[in-house]
Design a protein that fits this description.
five-stranded mixed β-sheet, Jelly Rolls, three-stranded antiparallel β-sheet, mainly beta, globular
């Protein structure tokens, strides 16, 4: 699945996967050695994320059900917890994606099943 920032006309991810099972939600990015450019992991209906046990930093977007970015957290380092953003979906991205795509709060995302 592809994620596009409609506001900036940029591609955020070419290969996005939805963590749609208990196991995928539980494991997330744990155990991965790297997160390749163009990849993304989507979590539906969460209010915060953590990076405990991860080997690398990530970029995180909190998106409401209308596809609007309500928070953009670049470079969330390992062993950290994000802020709380109720009733959101989360897109985890390789570090640097937010800066590269100039994605920010208020941007509208499309081509993603949120």
């Amino acid at each position: 699945m592809r994620i596009v920032n409609l506001t900036r006309n940029t591609i955020i991810a070419e290969k996005a996967e939805i963590a749609n099972t208990f196991l995928k939600r539980l494991v997330g990015l744990l155990g991965r050695k790297k997160f390749k450019a163009g990849e993304a992991l989507i979590f539906k209906n969460v209010s915060c994320v953590h990076t405990f046990g991860m080997r690398f930093a990530i970029d995180v977007l909190f998106v409401n059900r209308k596809g609007m970015v309500v928070a953009a957290l670049p470079n969330l380092k390992p062993f950290r917890i994000s802020g709380i953003y109720p009733f959101c979906n989360v897109i985890e991205l390789p570090v640097g994606t937010i800066q590269k795509t100039k994605t920010q709060k208020g941007d509208l995302l499309g081509d993603v099943s949120l």
